[in-house]
Amino acid sequence: MGCVPTKHANRSPDSLDARQAVALAAETSFTVSEVEALHELFRKISNSIVKDGLIHKEEFHLALFRNKKKQNLFVDRQQVFDLFDQKRNGVIEFSEFVRSLSVFHPDAPEEQKAAFAFRLYDLRQTGFIERQELKEMVLALLEESDLDITSDAVEMIVDRTFDQADTKGDGRIDQEEWNEFVKNNPYVLRNMTLPYLKDITMVFPSFVIHSEISEADMAA
User: Fold this and answer.
1) Measured between alpha carbons, how far is 142 from 115 in angstroms, rounded to an integer?
2) 150: helix, coil or strand?
3) Which of 7, 48, 115, 188 is most buried (most C-beta within 10 Å)?
4) What is the pTM of this model?
């Protein structure tokens, strides 16, 4: 008797394992269908320069967080790649890609966004945000909003913002102060949400229409 072909017998080496998709959906803000669509996006990015199924820094800077008008300011920071590269091995694997992108999902908890943003703006990785680091954050937000203001006005905004956030008055902002600050000023986290992630299945519809995994499988 010949062997009966199994459901995944002809799976491509770089295709997504069903169990991995369910697991990633369970621990992130993405659905199984969205994880499947993200896998196709990951596959395209990870093979754009070095065809090894991993995202290297050059591929990350080339492809991620871009919009039609200009490059998103986050991707210019080395810290973003490092935050995605959770294993600190110089490349981004698919699971790291999904978990990190989940923070930018519209449905992700504000606490996750605040924590990610804190690490992003803690440029020196001291566990605190200092005035110069806060200034860079303000400049990024102003540029993203296409606002052109004078240097004096920028300094005034930075001073006012720092005074408001540094409630302990020690010249630096810790995680607790930051959480309270963003709670009272949610606009600070505006760049921590990428609306298109909620419609990611519409970007790659052909890869999710015939999904082998249903949302019910996750609850089983």
Assistant:
1) 21
2) coil
3) 188
4) 0.75
